Amino acid sequence: MDKKGEIALAQMRKAVQNLGGSTERYGDPTLTRFLKARSMNPEKAAKMFVQWQTWRASFVPNGFIPESQIPDELASRKAYLQGLSKDGYPVLIFKGSRHFPCKDHLQCKRFVVYMLDKAVAR
């Protein structure tokens, strides 16, 4: 990372602390992702990061979504993790023909977070 990037990371860490958040559990790649999303503006990135932390803590309080919270979505068998690609990235396959409008939108949102967390964990 270049000098400007390191300075932006340090400024972002301070801004997150000023907003009442913490960056202890997150490494430079995660914080850099937020900086890039906000055009390397540390203040905007810090605000977005703290909002994400708040959302994540409320939506996924245990740190993961248990399968017991998404039984209907899992039963539909519309998404599969198929190992890794040639480049080492997880392959996630969704079968659109098995997706029908959700009766419970919260369960549908949890399913998406569940599948993305599983893919990232690989």
Question: How does this structure look, described?
Answer:
The chain is mostly helical and 122 residues long. The chain is built from 5 helices and 2 strands; from the N terminus they run ααααββα. A hairpin with a 5-residue loop joins strand 1 and strand 2. It is globular and about 50 Å long.
H/E series: HHHHEEH
Strand content: 5-15%
Distance between the termini: 25 Å
Derived structural class: mainly alpha
- Rg, alpha carbons: 18 Å
Rounded average pLDDT: 92
Number of strands: 2
Shape: globular
Count of helix runs: 5
Quick overview of this protein structure:
With about 120 residues, the chain is mainly α. It has helices at about 5-20, 30-35, 40-60, 70-75, 105-120; strands at about 80-85, 90-95. Helix 1 packs across helix 2 (about 30-35), helix 1 (about 5-20) packs across helix 3 (about 40-60) and helix 2 (about 30-35) crosses helix 3.
